[in-house]
Amino acid sequence: SYGKMWGTPSTTVRSIRPYQSSEQYLYAMKEDLAEWLKELYDLDIEVGTFMEVLETGAVLCSHANNVTHVAGEFARACPGVAHHLRLPTTGVTCNLAAQPGTFQARDNVSNFIQWCRKEMDIKDVLMFETEDLVLRKNEKNFVLCLLELARRATRFGMRAPTLVQMEEEIEEELRQELDLPP
């Protein structure tokens, strides 16, 4: 029964499938990322305007530059740890005035994508293409890339979106259950 499933000590059932469909899961991820970006940058963004606010690439490039800045501060504060992490060292050029759908917007998004690949070492399977965002071709890949970027940036001290925090808590619980080292 429903109640029994949720009462199991295993966290995996509860964590991986709380959503009935991938659409609901995508919505939840967008909601979480919107909330996080809003708090980080005092942005006017919510789940309903998520793609619109990000489609010019200006926020994405600013975020990339902020992540690079935080990484630099981390490297100065903890050189020993930083040495073992692949930290981003250069940011991106950005046209903050780019209008939706324009060449400048595509250029911003393209710069962000290159930065994710080169500076953050995000694998192709978690990457998106310019048109995925600009023409809304594949929202899922775009959202997964932002989450992966957030995950990697927590390693050097950036605050994570709630979903990433939950993943880390679940991993920690599983580690303890299986007696694995942290």
Salient structural properties:
182 residues, mainly alpha, Actin-binding Protein, T-fimbrin, domain 1, 10 helices, 64% helix, 0% strand, disordered N terminus
Structure at a glance:
One of its GO terms (biological process) is microtubule bundle formation. This is GAS2-like 2. The protein is an all-alpha fold.
The span between the termini is 34 Å
Strand content of the residues, in percent?
under 5%
Average pLDDT, rounded to a whole number, is 89
Gyration radius over CA: 18 Å
Look at the helices and sheets and give the structural class.
Answer: mainly alpha
Count of individual domains: 1
Annotated CATH homologous superfamily: Calponin-like domain
Number of strands: 0
- CATH architecture label: Orthogonal Bundle
**Regions with pLDDT < 50 over 5+ consecutive residues?**
1-14
What is CATH's topology name? Answer: Actin-binding Protein, T-fimbrin, domain 1
Q: Classify the helix fraction into a percent range.
A: 55-70%
Order of helices and strands: HHHHHHHHHH
Biggest sheet features: none
Q: What does this protein look like?
A:
The chain is mainly α. It has a single domain (about 20-175), classed as Calponin-like domain (Actin-binding Protein, T-fimbrin, domain 1, Orthogonal Bundle). Helix content is about 65%, strand content about 0%. Helix 5 (about 60-75) runs parallel beside helix 7 (about 105-120). The protein is globular. It starts with a helix and ends in a 5-residue tail after the last helix. About 25% of the residues are buried. Residues about 1-15 have low confidence and may be disordered.
